[in-house]
Amino acid sequence: MAVAGMVLDKWGAVWSGLASLVFLWPMLQNHIPTGLRQWLTILADKLTTLFSPYLQITISEYGDHRFRRSDFFLAVEAYLSHACARRARRLKADLGRDAKNLQVSVDDHQEVTDDFRDAMLWWYPSNKPTRASVISFYPADDERRLYRLVFHRRHRDLVLDEYLPHVLAEGRAVTVRNRQRRLFTNNASNNWNPYRSGNGIWSHVPFEHPANFDTLAMDPDKKAAITDDLMAFKESKDYYVSVGKAWKRGYLLYGPPGTGKSTMIAAMANFLDYDVYDLELTAVKNNTELRKLYIETTGKSIIVIEDIDCSVDLTSKRKKASGDKKASSEGEDDNKPKLPTEEKDDGTKVTLSGLLNFIDGLWSACGGERIIIFTTNHKEKLDPALIRRGRMDVHIEMSYCRFEAFKVLAKNYLGVEKHELFGEIRQLLEETDVSPADVAENLMPMSKKKKKDPDACLAGLIEALNKAKEEAAAKAKEEAEAAAKAKEEEAEAKQKEAAEAKAKEAADAKEEDEGKANG
Ligand SMILES: Nc1ncnc2c1ncn2[C@@H]1O[C@H](COP(=O)(O)OP(=O)(O)OP(=O)(O)O)[C@@H](O)[C@H]1O
Ligand SMILES: [Mg+2]
User: Fold this and answer.
1) ipTM above 0.90, yes or no
2) Nearest atom (ligand 1) to Cα of 401
């Protein structure tokens, strides 16, 4: 009994000593020399690892890419705020990068528990102060943030092989869901400065275009075919891998001005939840720059070149080359290696071959999940090689407004699905070519008088359609007259030419006869 009492006394003394040490440690720390303090910390760590059955993984903010935040860190952050934040007792809230969405995340030093296939895991977010004596070159580098993951050593394989990949995938998915989509435009290359924000290769603003497929006026069957195609593209990563193709798709939108080409691009971006890169080709100096721009785009994006026929003189050169060779462009296309020699790329401009490489060269496979869209008012002006299937996989004609498209506009703008004037409008739309932009303008009740009056708007539209019809008829008449006149003039010229030729022939014959007589 006495022995037991002594042992208990001894342990009691040890525990109370340890408790005092823990209590006094913060005060003592300041009096212990740095070297000894570090040694004690290492010793404590070693003792912990020796006796503790728990393992720890650290994920730090800057990882090995010292200038870029680690993707894994960002994924963990997103995962924790989404999947585990509800279990944390201290959270912090802030506005997201776009200053609109409220983002809630786990507060520093707040333990968060997670369970995965019956394994218990603990996450500890914390700050690691950098040494004050070290001069730092990194942005906001005074404190590096990190996450510590603690788990029992028997779950080691589960955590490394399954849990961490799960965190990465979930975190990325959450980031994509929460992100503010952006609209990028390329800067002129003499302003490129990767170290200054806003002066990179691409500048961006939040993408906020409200267009969607429901409000887009076009034939419903055509619309359904496009959305089906987009959906199939989005979901067919494995298919593209299996057929050995880069995961991208080209769309050519063509049609007269105001038929909704740009609106369609915005609707596609909203439908797919992609970023948009609006590439201004005239600001790109040469093919090398074009390639750089491509590499700097991210996946899940739409790359747009508007009015491709006006951006760069891509056609005349190619036509000239094909004219010289007396070969059709399509024929040439099969013979691709000849392209660069046909257009001498002197490095001072974007050439057709540069653009072809941009669309389906080796670099174009980097990153994946991209849609490339060209728009033009004049499809016939484009080189067939540029828009052949495989490069521009889908050609979509945006045409003048017909009755089906009008019905969508009437519903959007006036909330009307049936009206007695619809019959007349249908007739007029069949006979007249007007763009949806013109129809929409007439349906927009801007004046107070028209505000709540679909009748007035539709009557105004009928008036505008009649006017357009008359103008078109007058123009057609004028053109027909001009054509008839030209034909007449041509016939007259031909007649004159024939008469002159005949007279010359007669004169020559006479001259010959006279010559013979004299001879
Ligand atoms: N099919 C459409 N459905 C709904 N609105 C349309 C449609 N077409 C045009 N509009 C309206 O007309 C305006 C102009 O359309 P948009 O800019 O998309 O035409 P575009 O084909 O790109 O013309 P451009 O060839 O001149 O660039 C848009 O703001 C939109 O409101
Ligand atoms: Mg446009």
Assistant:
1) yes
2) 1
